[in-house]
Amino acid sequence: MKRLFLVILLVSASFAVDVTIHWNEWPYGAECIGNWFKWWYNGETPVSCPSFNPSDTIWDFALGSTAATSESYIMDTSQAQGNPPPIATYAEKQVMSGEVSWGYESKDTSGTTQNMWFYGFFASGQQIDYDPPYYKVYQFPMQYGSAWNSEWTWNFMGIDVVYEIRITSVVAQGWVRIPLDTTQWFACLVMRTYMSTWDELGLIDDDYIVHEWVSPIYGSLVTIQSLNHEPNPGFTTAKYFFRMKEYFSVNDMFPPDFANTTVIPSGYNFGPFSISSIITDPSGINTDSIFYKIGTGAWQRLYHDSIIGDNFHFHIPQISNPDTVRYYLVAKDNSANLNRGTDPRMHQRSIINSMPMTRLMTIIHRSLLILQSGPTRPFLDLIRFLPILLIPVE
Hints:
The chain has 394 residues and is an all-beta fold. It contains no helices and 32 strands.
C-alpha cells in the first residue's frame, strides 16, 4: 500500500523593506521651525558599540549609555546667536551636556535633487562662516545606494585656514529599535560618512567614520562616531553614540493608519479577491487605492469599491491561471503635506496559487503574515512560505 510522508522543504523569513526619504519627509527646514529632538549619548567617555555590518537589516539600540543628553531645536534665524548668513533659512540650536551652539542651515524644496546645507555655526562666542560650496549634509531623495560628497574651507580668526571633506553613501536599509519607542521598529537607511578635517598650521588632524541611522519623519535616529583615525568601518569603540529618546513635530508628517486589513491566505484560489481596511487620519483621507500585479505583469491600480465609516473596501479581479498575486494599499491624507502611507509599509502581500502537479505529488503553499501596526509605527512584514511536499511511497 502507499503511505504519505510529510516533508517540509523550506522555511524562509525575510524582513523586507525598501526605504526612500524625500525632502518633505525630513524634519529639518524652514517649514519645520518649532521641531525638536533629544538623544541619549555617552558624554565624553568612549563606549563600546556593535560592529556595523552593511549586510544586516535589523539593529536593536533600545539599550545603551544614558550618561548625557543631546538636544536640537529648529528655530527662526532671528532667534539665533551670531550673524546667520542671508542664505540660511533656519537655525539649529544644539545643546550637548549643557554646551550650546548654533548652526546656520537651509533645505532645498525644488528641483530633481534637493539638499540640506550647513553654512557655518556660532559657538563659545566665536562665529565660523563656511566658504562656498558649503557643507551638503543630506541629499534627497535618499535611498539605498545614494552617495554625495562635500568639500569646503573656513577661516579661523584670520590666522588659519581649515579644510573639511565629507564622503557619504547609503550602505544599508532595514529596521531599527530605539529608546523613543521600544515597542516598535522604525524603517531606516544607514549612512556611512568619512569625515576629514585638517588645517594649514598643522593643529588639526581629524579622521572619523560615522554611521547614521535615518528615517522618514523622525530624521536622525542613531549616530555612532568612531575614534580618531579609526581605519576599520566595523569599529567596536565609539567616541560618540547617540540614540533618539524624544521627538516633537509642529507639522502633520504622519501618514494614514491602516488597521484590520484583509490578509488573503494562499491556496488554490482564482478570486475575485475582496480586501478591506480601516484607514484613518486626523486630517481625513484624500485619496485611496489598491495596487496589484499578477505574476511578472505590470502593477495595476484600482480605487475603492465602497466606504462604510472608516472601512474601505477594494477588490482584485479574478485571475484565469494559477499565479502569484501581489498587492498593497495606498492612502494620502488631507494635511498640507499630503502624507502618503502604504499597507504593508514598503512591501506587498502575496497570494500564492498552485495547482496539482501530478497524481502522485501535490505542493501546497501556506503563508504566515505577521504585521506590527499602529497610528505612528511602521509595519513589520514577516512572510514565511512553507512548501509541503506529499510524497507517495510504496
